[in-house]
Every structure is written in C-alpha cells, then in structure tokens.
Amino acid sequence: MPRTLSKVHKQISKKRGVIDSLHENSRDARRLRRAGSRDDRLIRHTGAVMKARQPYMERIEYFHNAVQDIDEPLNDEGLADLVNQCINRDAEELAQLQQERRKGRPPLRREEALSQRTQTEEKEFKTGFWMPDLSDEDAFLKLKHWNGEWTALSSAKFIRLVIGGEKQASSFPPKGMS
C-alpha cells in the first residue's frame, strides 16, 4: 500500500478500531478514496517521468560503461569516435534481425525501434549530440564514479557535440537545443 493511503488508513483505524465496513459516503470513506486516487496520480506521474528520462539514462549509462576502461579525459577525436560507437551500438542486433526476417515480411517492432533510434541519434549528432563532457577532467571523473542515480548527474558538466568537433555547453536535464 502506498505511503499516503496507509497513513490515512492508520489514522482512521486508530479512531474507529478495525475498519470492516464504512458507509459509502462517510467522511472516512471519502478520505480513503481521496488518498487512494492521490496515490494513483503520483504513481502515474512518476512512471511518466521515468519513461521520459529513460533514453537519457541509457545514453549516460553507455558513456559510463565506456569510460571505465579509460584513465584520462578524451580529446575531440576520441569524443567523436565514442559518439559514433554510441550511435551504432545496436548495429549487430539490427543486422541480425534483418537477416532473420523472411523476404517480403514487415520489420519487427524491435527492428523498427532500433533503426529509428539510430536515425534520430545521427540527426542529433549533426546538430549537437547531448552528452557528458568527457574532455573535462572533473566531469570525466564524476561520470566514471557515477552511482546510477538521475539526481547525481545534476553536478556533472554536459555538452552538445557536433560532427565537426564543435562543442557547446549544455544544461542538465536537456531542454531543446540547450
């Protein structure tokens, strides 16, 4: 039972004893309904927020795993190579799914999702790929020792990297072309 509903339930049971039956329109029944609907709204909102953050979390987790083997910050060429690896991280799975599909059959949802994500990230790389600044010593170390929490990223430094190697400062969380 979520926290607020359990709190209300506890308060009512302290007052009344065991709650076996309440009148449909009693104050206590209304309190319980309001608390339950409030918890449902909070759970739906939290789920929507987590779903919206998921692509950014996957991207940051990829960079986090990639820098574990590296000892020092990257130069501009290293950043571009790492971004290209990130964009093409699912190329093998995509090729395998395309090979397994019979001729004339429509692509699977997974295949469509992977190709769409790859295309979206390639477009983003042309205008400015949002990523942690791995050329900065402090940001590099923060990402290397990141604990996997969204809130821990607020102190890290982020950039938008363009294909030509141009870097622009960015904010966390990303908003538009910031």
TrEMBL record:
Region annotation Disordered: residue ranges?
Answer: 98-123
Top-rank lineage group of the source organism: Eukaryota
Basic and acidic residues: compositionally biased ranges: 108-123
List where the protein spans the membrane: none
Supply the InterPro entries for this chain.
Tma16, Tma16_sf
Q: Which GO terms describe its cellular component?
A: nucleus
Q: Which family does it belong to?
A: Belongs to the TMA16 family.
Name it.
Translation machinery-associated protein 16
Provide the species name: Penicillium frequentans
Q: Which lineage ranks, top first, belong to the organism behind this chain?
A: Eukaryota, Fungi, Dikarya, Ascomycota, Pezizomycotina
